[in-house]
Amino acid sequence: MAKSSFDVNKLLSQMTLEEKIGQLVQFNASLFGSSAAEITGPLEKLGVSSEQLKNVGSTLNFKGAGEVIALQDKHMKEDRNHIPMLFMMDVIHGYRTIYPIPLGLGASFDPELVKECSEMAAKEASAGGVHVTFTPMVDYVRDARWGRVMESCGEDPYLNSVMGAAQVKAFQGDDLSDDDRLATCVKHFAAYGGAEAGRDYNTVEISERLLREYYFPAYKACIDAGVTMLMPSFNSLNGVPSIANKWLMKKVLKEEWGFEGVVISDYNAIGELKKHGITDDMKKGAEMAFDCGCDIEMMSSAYINHLADLVREGRFSEKMIDNAALKVLELKKRLGLFEDPYHGASVEKEAAVCLTSEHRAISRRAAEGCAVLLKNNGVLPFSKSVKKIAVIGPLATTNEMKGSWSCNGENEDCITVYQGIKNLLPNAEVVTAQGCGVEWDNFDRSGFDEAVELAKSADAVVLCLGEYQKYSGEGNSRIDICLTGVQDELAKLITAATPNTAAVVFSGRPLVLKALDSHAPAILEMWWPGSEGGNAVARLLFGDANPSGKVPMSFPKALGQCPIYYNHPSTGRPKMTPEEVHQGYASNYIGEGNLPLYPFGHGLSYSNFVYETLELDKTTMTKDSEIKVSITVYNDSDVVGKEVVQLYMHDLWASTVRPIQSLIGFEKIELGARERKTVTFTVKETMLRFYDAECNFISEAGEFTLSTGCADNLLLTKSFTLEN
Ligand code: BGC
Q1: Is 266 among the residues known to form the active site?
Q2: C-alpha–C-alpha distance, residues 683 and 567, integer Å
Q3: Which residues contact 55 (CB under 8 A, 6 or more apart)?
Q4: CB 340 within 8 A of CB 73
Q5: What is d(CA 702, CA 449) in angstroms, rounded to the nearest whole number?
């Protein structure tokens, strides 16, 4: 569509104060339903009249193009100025065709794959009437108890930044008026992932230095990538809820970063200032949030009921309301809504573009690219000539493969593991038994015998384990992060019955897999893989696809290690000698080391990748020069595969304690049989900077190392010196 010439300033000049404030309000689509009986209750609860609804500028949570078009038509007739509404939705990992959860995307270490998935989601969602998606979620995470780690790309700021920026660019493209594009909204600013003890919505107390070093970079990367909107987080940050946190919203976001996009509160976050004990008075709540630069209030009624009074009383000038409303109108203009209020959506288009075989193929490839082969003693890949395969476990025949935040995806559209194996091997005998349940409080062992007998009768066993998909996502923190119920017991019996067994794990977080690791010959982590999960599992297990994902968030050996993360600051007693341990000075947990079961960056392949050399083009660097690092990898096998070449940096001496390793670069490459490739990274002085004790972002002269491999298994290392 040609760029819009619509005059938003002229429109604004014709609007009343209340109408302008309406643009700063977002309510659920259900509130705009046609039946008065349906809406009276919720509207009353919100303290909003149906007359006020006519000015409201945006909505969320609706079902498809049909509903969007009907609502838009109704709204544009009722609004005196006929301004189209913005339709926003959480398109997190697909709209109708669902691809792996963001933690899985993190595991892919593949921004190209993320781009392809996001473009597909944008195409489907825009056909379904969505204008803005509340994605990417780039909250930095360390505690796998938190249910929302599934929405993040994991424990590394750089990985989160790269993946967040890739999503912003792919969803938005070059021109938001393009029918296949969506505007994006980065969230949840800031440090929602730092919720104490991994309990959702819990308080966050983190030093400014840690915030800047680990938690902020991914939000900033999305802003640099051109994100349209930003959502402050629910949590209080160092004592003040983000929505009313002046330091965060005014000093960091506006003054330092110069963010000029639209800020939208999280769901009822202004209303929750009451529960936070900050204010019982919603006029005060409106004042605090608007003062902090929140343009749109989502699902509470502080703005619609109090902003006008705050202007009349002189607390805010009308010009400030104009500026915020103009930002919303400008966004509508950028999306081309004044010319086409549906942004190209139609029922026919939605049906035609969603869940096509082409989109299913993208989703399947994504599920394959995100899968991490955690362990393999050689049983995988299974031979395709096996005659009888037993698919066992509580997740063997379930189509609940989507994971949380699956938008308009349906379970019925997801392929089960059982079906996937039958699809791949139509001539094999495929049998199945559940063995036990997946609920945390299901201790029923009555299915064990049948499952064991079936396993004994098969040539290969696929053991489908994990956690219930409803145990991750918003409001789903876990007290324990084990395989739920009696799955570990089942796994022990099955692996003893048939050595040719591979465990496939489905989860929204890294689980504690220590017991499984001790007896399963192979473990494949699938996360929540989406619509094509079962087909992807089958292809991976039987060698039609080669696993290439890497761990994006450490898998602990025991829950007590949480929070556990590879980029830990050095400590004064990192490794104890046996004598010191004996004297009681151990830094290790009693009965367990400090290391995770599977570290960040770990992931096996059916290829055999050999890291041959790591070369630096110089060993000293000045602030204006750069170093080229070349890493050569050889595929010493006949199997084509992909490898993520990772580059880690360690600053050996600095005025502030530095992490033992930091990822500063990665590249996923494909290597043919017996092929060798060299990947070259450029290291610049800016990549060596950190926040000193006074929070200045600086680099300090001294010695650094550069290494490759994965976090706890660095294979090659060289050092260089940064000169003043
Ligand atoms: C979540 C956000 C989401 C919003 C709208 C909130 O509960 O925290 O991530 O975008 O709901 O659905």
Answers
A1: yes
A2: 19
A3: 18, 19, 21, 22, 23, 25, 79
A4: no
A5: 63
**Assigned domain for 681 exists:** yes
Region label for 601, one of left (φ > 0), alpha (ψ between -120 and 50) or beta (otherwise): left
pLDDT, residue 712, reads: 81
- CA angle, corner 344, sides to 338 and 345, nearest 5? 115
For residue 243, the enclosing domain spans 1-85+234-345
Is residue 30 in a domain?
A: yes
Q: Of 79, 266, 413, 488, which is the active-site residue?
A: 266
Amino acid letter, residue 501: T
Residues near ligand 1 (Cβ within 6 A):
60, 90, 134, 187, 266-267, 474
Tell me: pLDDT of 193 over 80. Answer: yes
User: Closest ligand 1 atom, CA of 188?
Assistant: 9
Q: Residue 33: pLDDT band by 50, 70, 90 thresholds?
A: confident
- Quote the ligand 1 centre to 699 CA distance (angstroms): 38
Atom index in ligand 1 nearest the CA of residue 151 equals 9
pLDDT(574) > 80:
no
Give the CATH number of the domain where residue 703 resides.
Answer: 2.60.40.10
Number of domains into which the chain is organized = 2
603 CB contacts (<8 Å, ≥6 apart)? 107, 372, 373, 374, 547, 548, 549, 550, 551, 644, 710
d(CA 237, ligand 1 centre) in Å: 18
Tell me if the bond preceding 188 is cis, omega within 30° of 0.
Answer: yes
- How much is the pTM? 0.97
Last residue of one domain, picked from the residues 308, 328, 345: 345
Please give the pLDDT value at position 592.
83
Residue nearest to atom 12 of ligand 1 (CA): 90
Pocket test for ligand 1, best of 93, 266, 296 (most atoms within 8 A of CB): 266
719 alpha carbon to ligand 1 midpoint, in Å?
Answer: 45
CA of 62 to the centre of ligand 1 (A): 14
Cα 630 from Cα 484, distance rounded (Å): 44
Distance 214 CA to ligand 1 centre (A): 23
Identify the pLDDT of residue 586.
65
Atom number of ligand 1 nearest to Cα 192: 8
The CATH number assigned to the domain holding 310 equals 3.20.20.300
Q: Reply yes or no on whether the pLDDT at 204 is more than 90.
A: yes
**Final residue before a domain boundary, out of 329, 345, 361:** 345
Can you give the pLDDT at residue 573? 80
Structural contact between residues 333 and 8, judged by C-beta atoms closer than 8 angstroms: yes
Q: Which atom of ligand 1 is nearest to the CA of 185?
A: 10
Ligand 1: which of 30, 134, 297 to mutate, most ligand atoms within 8 Å of CB?
134
Q: pLDDT at residue 582 above 80? A: no
User: Vertex 582, ends 581 and 584: CA angle to 5°?
Assistant: 65
Start-to-end Cα distance in the chain: 52
Average pLDDT over the chain, rounded to an integer: 96
